[in-house]
Amino acid sequence: MAKKLRVTLVRSMHGRVKNHMACVRGLGLRRMHHTVEIEDTPPNRGMINKVSYLLKYEEV
Fold it and tell me: Any idea what the CATH number is for the domain that residue 43 is in?
């Protein structure tokens, strides 16, 4: 079974670079304090690393 990550958006997307906003949307996050569980894959890790300053994440 694949590992999961719990990702929460803790900082606002307003005024951010378009690529960073696209990464947040790609992770399935829609608004502040929204939490999603995603699979721990290299593409997802890459998006998390790019916008880590906006997120809180943990392994489930």
Answer: 3.30.1390.20
